Amino acid sequence: MKVHFTTARGEAVTAEAEPGDNLLRVAQAVGMPLEGTCEGQMACSTCHVVVAADWFARLPEASEEEEDMLDLAAGVTRTSRLSCQIVLDDTLDGLAVTIPPESYDMRR
User: Fold this and answer.
1) Could you report the per-residue pLDDT of 2-44, keeping only the tens digit for each?
2) Whole-angstrom Cα distance, residue 4 to residue 15?
C-alpha cells in the first residue's frame, strides 16, 4: 500500500507501507521530520500531520487524549491528527498527509 506525504516545502514523497504499520514509523522511514518523542504514547505532539480533507473522514475518530495533545501542537487545522495514532489498513491505501511547516525533528 502507498502513503503520500507532502513536505512543508511542497515536495511529494510516496512511501510503501504494510497493513498494521503506524503512520509515524512510515513517515520516519522516508525521512519526514516527525520526531515522535513519546514513541506513540500520546504524551507529546511531535508527530502532528495534516490529513488531506478527502481522507480525514475515513480515519477512525480521534480519542479525547489525542485531541488534548493536538491542542498543544503548532499549526493545527481541522484535519490534524497525531501520526502515531493512525494505524494503516487496506482502506487507507493512497492516504495523503502534509507535514506542517512547524515540524522539526531534533534527532537530526
Assistant:
1) 999 999 899 999 999 999 999 999 999 999 999 888 888 888 9
2) 6
Retrieve residue 36's grid coordinates: 515522535
Q: Residue 70 is placed in which grid cell?
A: 493536538
**Is there a contact between 17 and 3 (Cβ–Cβ < 8 Å)?**
yes
Give phi and psi for 85, each to the nearest 5.
-100, 0
pTM of structure: 0.90
Distance of alpha carbon 13 from alpha carbon 7, whole angstroms: 8
**Nine-digit cell string for 73:** 501542537
Q: Which three-class secondary structure state does DSSP give residue 20?
A: coil
Closest Cα to residue 50, out of 95, 107, 104, 2? 95
